[in-house]
Structure prediction request, 316 residues.
Amino acid sequence: MRYLSGDAQHIGSRQYQQDCYGFSDANNLEFFAHGGLLAVLCDGMGGMEHGDRASQAAVRTLLDAYALKTPGESIPDALERSVQEANRRVLTLARELGSEGGVGTTLVAVVLHGDSMHFISVGDSGLFLVSGGQLQVVNRPHVYANLLDQAVARGAMSRQQAENHPERESLTSFIGVPTLHEIDRNMEPWPLRQGDTILLASDGMFKTLPIDEIEACLTGHPQSWPSVLVDRTLAKDLPSQDNVTVLSMTMAENSLPAWVPFPEGSVFALASSAGTEKTGSLGRISSWRGGRRLWVLAALLFLVDAGLIAWIYFSR
Prediction:
């Protein structure tokens, strides 16, 4: 099975980039066979200290922990273990920074394996499935609004009171709490079809763009969707625009060749930009390393050809 990835990121109008993301190494074919392709996005909590450090630590830890998956460990178990490890790392980071209880980040991760996906999320970063031209929200945000809506259902408060509650968007679960009571994930494989695309997004995108505008951006090649969505978000020109990050993972069509190189912009390493670039700096380094390998291969082929020509010439 072949997958194509895309990514785009912008700092918005904030002083710090607190979004961080990464992909696993799709070139490790032995691991890929049982571990699939992993993408993770973390959004450091701006209302707390060191949100950028928290998101970077969580992404790096989750990637490293998931890379320890064995063929005998299921993908859901590996994801849950990795999230717990990321949570412990952020808690340790908080103690190291002297901010215990004050460092946190959201996390959403997805693994594509064969013709299915597994996901896990903590907090309110978004996971979307685009299939047959239809956009579907996959994960459930961990926000106080869930409790308010339950109160409305019980008749304990009115719908208007719930909608206007000042804490409605407050997180009830995030990476950086002593115990993770709320984790959203699927235990059985979620089937996908060729051409389906998964989108991971920080709330800087989907809290700025209404659903109809998001759907309007989903035209053309899916690898372009992250950049289009980020551009559409920035076009709103909001004075308080949050950091915005969008990742895409697409199941390739059968018409593609057996081996599909990941294009410029696809990254398999930690990426978090402190400036206003759309892609993370480490992602560009990763892409350059891939390009350098191609140049080395081309040089070797040239030398082989040159040697063959010389042998033919001098042996005449």
